[in-house]
Amino acid sequence: MAEKQKKKLEVVQTLDSDESCQTFVLHDEDHTLGNALRYMIMKNPDVDFCGYSVPHPSEHKINLRIQSRGPPAADILRRGLTELNALCEHVQNTFEGAVEEYKMNQAMQQSTDNTEPMETG
Questions:
Q1: What is the pLDDT of residues 10-40, one digit of tens each?
Q2: Which residues form the DNA-directed RNA polymerase RBP11-like dimerisation domain (predicted)?
Q3: Residues 6 or more apart from 30 whose CB is under 8 A from it?
Q4: Among 15, 56, 64, 107, whose CB has the most other CB atoms within 10 angstroms?
């Protein structure tokens, strides 16, 4: 029998239906995503508050709370994830470019070292 697949993201339902103020649970995540995502979301001028917590060190999930000045919190979360993804792609591309440049410089340095005449004394 197949194991029930756990949802990666849940919305904590509250009694009031204010979509601008919601708590999300992200499963199988920790401070690595929590702090980066909180930072990206807080840069949004429509956000009043964004914070996260790890309920317990043995639980691999984070609770992310978003309060906005009007737009739905789900839209704010989506935008934050999109911007964080774009930032991570930029960092990866920059890093990979720097590694390639380093390798090319090392190869050129080695070929230059191999073609220099040896001194005889």
A1: 999 877 778 999 999 999 999 999 999 999 9
A2: 22-93
A3: 54, 60, 62
A4: 64
Given this model, what pLDDT does residue 30 score?
Answer: 95
Say what percent of the chain tops pLDDT 70. 91
User: In the chain, what are the domain boundaries?
Assistant: 9-113
List of residues 6+ apart from 107 with CB closer than 8 A? none
Please report which confidence band the pLDDT of residue 87 belongs to, taking 50, 70 and 90 as the band edges.
very high
Beta-carbon contacts of 63 under 8 Å, excluding residues fewer than 6 positions away, are: 12, 23, 24, 25, 52, 53, 54, 55
Which CATH number applies to 9-113: 3.30.1360.10, 1.25.60.10, 1.10.472.10, 3.40.50.300?
3.30.1360.10
CB-count burial class (<10 Å; 0-12, 13-18, 19+) for 38? buried
CA separation for the pair 112, 68 (Å, rounded): 59
